[in-house]
Amino acid sequence: MSARDYDLEPFWMPFTANRQFKAAPRILVSAKDMHYTAEDGRKILDSTAGLWCVNAGHCREPIVRAIKQQAESLDFAPTFQMGHPGPFRLAQTIAHLAPSDLNHVFFANSGSEAVDSALKIALAYHRVRGEGQRTRLIGRERAYHGVGFGGISVGGMTPNRKVFGAMLPGVDHLPHTHDLEKMAKSRGQPEWGAHLANDLERIVALHDASNIAAVIVEPVQGSTGVVVPPKGYLERLRAICDKHGLLLIFDEVITGFGRLGSAFAADYFGVIPDMITFAKGVTSATVPMGGVIVRKHVYDAFMGGPEGIELFHGYTYSGHPLAAAAGEATLALYHDEELFANAARLAPCFEDAAHSLADIPNVIDVRNIGLMAGIELAPRPGKPGARGYEALVGCFEAGLLTRITGDTLACSPPLIATKAHIDQIFTTIGKVLKAIA
Ligand SMILES: Cc1ncc(COP(=O)(O)O)c(C=O)c1O
Fold first, then answer.
1. What are phi and psi of 251, to 5 degrees?
2. CB-based contact 373:9 (threshold 8 Å)
3. Which atom of ligand 1 is nearest to the CA of 52?
4. CB under 8 Å to 173, separation ≥6 — which residues?
5. CA 279 to CA 254: how far, in whole Å?
6. Where are the alpha helices (DSSP H) in 272-313?
7. Would you say the pTM of this structure is higher than 0.70?
8. From the DSSP assignment, how many helices (H) and strands (E) are in the chain?
9. Atom of ligand 1 nearest to the CA of 53
10. With 110 labelled, which of 116, 237, 356, 435 sits at a CA distance of 20 to 30 A?
């Protein structure tokens, strides 16, 4: 263990058991392509693209160069009543990449801000069209939409909500779609569960459509441990939203930029939402950035409103020059190296490798789509999360970075992965799971 020249105590770590971590820290000091280097010099294979975000691989030279050049030429410029080229160029590229007429982009700095921006746009959209009473927002159980008050209100992960008071009023939730009895160890989209989208009709009947602004879902739930939508589910949500004039928001903070082998999950499933929230992969996580892509009719509604500022919303760093430069370089790299296609090519072997763990003792579910997989472990009696945490630590000791939510391990490697990396990821997890059984 190298001697540290810093104290671990002052940093209040996010989403971390601080006391546990600081007693036995796992410190990463550098990274390149598919690997981190730990402070003891060990190479750690990154099976999670950092936090579902380093889609282009670590410290890629064209992105690093673009950020350096930008920092030297224009460090910051406002985007309130002023402009600079970066965000205009990046918005154009994103609009080209996004499906259908999702062709205007609002920039934020994170997924959480992207979600809150989308929810605010939904409310303001109905208001500018003269339906300002549409204020209710519909989320889903087990959803993760970041940590802003909007995001935790429509979100459905209990620990992220339970100590934070009443949150936004007027929010309702769809049921989640995961049922071990009906779909355990499904490959790709489960056959069972499309009917769960019909619950939206029940919610509409309860509140009346005239009071509902929008429905927000992750097309594939990520943070709760990879829950793949049943076949036909998203299509049905779209149809019900259309029937009642509700905006449909896909939170693609994880699924955006290639995770399923297409630019967006909307392309993959052939279901077009009214807004897409994104973050993470847009810059391959090199510089924080998030945003909302909106369909033409959403943007046009604002542009047909009163003269002057159409949306009183924005962040000092909306379209920050470094983030925009990183975004442009990242999207160029995805294109030049055909990384989305690489993800699509690898997906079948990723699926086979993930499901090779299905019969290991205590593995109660394996689920996957694109380059996302969740491996759910039976909880230790009376100690939920303990087995998952042991797996995380065991994998790290064996040279593999994974991610856990409770007792579910999640894998989402960078899109530059090869078959050999995939084999190594799942062989290592398999060995660790057997060892901690
Ligand atoms: C679907 C989804 N939305 C929002 C967020 C929040 O993003 P951030 O952590 O950048 O605020 C995440 C983060 O994982 C996410 O998975």
1. -90, 100
2. no
3. 14
4. 138, 139, 140, 141, 143, 154, 156
5. 8
6. 296-303
7. yes
8. 16, 15
9. 14
10. 237
